[in-house]
Each structure stands twice: as C-alpha cells, then as structure tokens.
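Students often ask why we bother encoding 3D structure as a string. The short answer is that it lets us treat folding as translation between two languages. Here is a chain of 381 residues written in the first language.
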Amino acid sequence: MATNEEDGAVTAGSPEAAAAAKAGASASTGVTNVDAVELAPEGDAVVIIDQTLLPNRLEHIRLTTAEQMYDAILKLKVRGAPAIGVCAGYCYYVLARQEAQRASSYDDFASAMDAQRAYLNSSRPTAVNLSWALNRMHGVTLAHKGEAPAGIVDLLRKEAVAIHREDLAMSEEISRLGASLLNDGDGVLTHCNAGPLACLGYGTGQGPLFYAHDHGKTVHVFADETRPLLQGARLTSYELQRAGIDVTLICDNMASIVMKNGWVQACMVGCDRVAMNGDAANKIGTSGVAILAAHYGIPFYVLGPTSTIDQGCPTGDDIKIEERDPDEIKTMWYAEPKALPEVKCYNPAFDVTDHSLITAIITEKGICRPPYTESLAALFR
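And here it is in the second language, the structure alphabet:
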C-alpha cells in the first residue's frame, strides 16, 4: 500500500508492509491481506479483495458505481463490520466525486448523496458499521451547507481516510488487549472471520491471535468452518495458516468435543452489532458456541470497535437480523443440490448472543465486563 503524500490516503498498488504501520502502529510480521480495502491512487474507485474467491484465488476488484458497491457488500465480496465501514467511507467519497460533477447546486449534491447513502445502507441491515460510516460521511456533507460541492469532496476524502486510519489503530489496540487475556500455549476457538480481511490491520475477533504470535506467545487455534458460507474454513484458517499460526479446522458441530477434551481455554469472536445491555450480534452459530463455552466453564470474549456498539439499541431484541438466499444452504459449494427444490430453508446471517454468556467485551477503549449496561455506557462518557 502507498500513502498519498498530500492527504495521507491509504491507496492501492504498493508492495509496502502492513497497513497497521500507516496508523502509527507497529507493523505485523504475520498479518496478511492488509490491502482488503483501499482507495485507488486516482481516487476514482474503491479497490477490494474479492473474499468470495478465497482461498483458491486472490483477486482485487475495482468498485466505481453504486450498483457495484451495493453488490460487493451484499454478496460478501467485502465483509466484516470494520472493513465494511472503511469500504463505505471510501464508497461515499467516490460517489461524491461523481455527483459533484453533475450537481448544479449544493442542494442537488446533498440530495443525491442522501439517496446514495440510503441505497448503500440497505445492502446489509445488521452490520452497524455500514450505517455508522455512511452517516459520518454524510454528516460532513450536511455540515457544509451551501458550499461548493467540489470543496466538500476534498473534505470527504479526508474523512474517509480518517475512518481508515482510526480503524487500523483500533485494530491494534483491541488485539493488544485481547492478547493480554491469553496465556502462552492456550487453545482458542474461533467462529467466522474477524481477522485482517474483515477488519484490516490485525483484526478484532482473531486479532489477538496474530498479536500474540507476533509478540512471542504460542496459541493453538480451532477454527469453526462457519456454515453456510464457510468463512472460518475459507478465510480464518487461510489467514492463520499463512501467518504461521497453529490452526485446526473443525466443523461447527465439533466445537463441543474439542471443549470437552480440554483443548480450548478461550473463545474469541468478532461482532457486527452490540446492544447497550451487552447482547451481541455476530455470525450465525455464535450464540451456540457461547452456550457451549458456558457449559464447559470456558471464557467467551467478544471483540469489536466502539463503532459496533449501537447506542440506540437497548437490547438484542432490537437488532434486525438479515436473512439470506436459501441456495446458500442447498446448492452453494455442491456439484449437485443437497436438498429438494421444494424444501424450505431458514437462513439467518446472524444470531444474538445473550449478554449473560459473554465474559468480556473488548474494545479499543478498554475491556468491558458485566454489568454491561454500566461498562458500555461508560465508554461514551
């Protein structure tokens, strides 16, 4: 990656080392794919790694239109709450460049960008970082009412870059705090993917594993495959294996036996939205892992930036859960369908883990413990 000397933008095309260094954080020796989301050098496109092709092919794609951006978020070409937030910031900026050329006035520009914001935000309703980043970007537009769109576009680029840099610094601090909860030689069970691909830098849910590895701790990871889209198999095991971290891939329904065998000393997962009472939405199957961990007396940690904590969401009951295409269960990954066409499917993308099952929530501002109504609220005072 390269840094634009004028505004510090993280841009595509450089062979330089880890993106964490861009934020003033220490470069990691083990982190891979730190270029999962970048701004093209010309500023006319968002460049992402198409995560649907991993681990067999590593390809970057350019997003220049709102439709391409919506499709990339919806179809999980870019995924993971923090990475979606960074991507959304850059998407808003790229679209603002285009709308500024068409707009005849500030009002035309602001109206067009509000429509673009709403369109992109509808792609994935559960991931709060998407709306958070889009609203933050749109706030810049609204704060400069009556000004020339071209000047606002320059400010939007700076804001998008700030979101990216903050994300990198956040990732490092969450990873450092999470790693402090692990002992040398611990076994750690993961679910889904919240490493560099999903979060940039070290990551969140898997960030402590990379951080521990870089700082001389040995960890043994059991990665749930994470049905139906196999993010654990395709992405988490891929990242950990490439980083030289001991990783064993298991089917989701094997989590209980590895815990019972005494091979797991901690569970670490990311999050897509956290309610103010500590209920946490994450990839489907996460709550089942938490229930098993509670049964076996294993700490269950949720890791994510404060941007995933929704101050307007009192409890997990208020979190809208995205439902996805039944074919992800019946036909994807198979040469032939594994169920009759007329068989009904229920395919929620997320579930909500009750706060009572969570040992701690680790953010860049500190480690929050129960009661979460108090510790989470304190983050925003």
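Translate back mentally: Residues 183 and 212 are 9 Å apart (CA to CA). Keep this in mind for the problem set.
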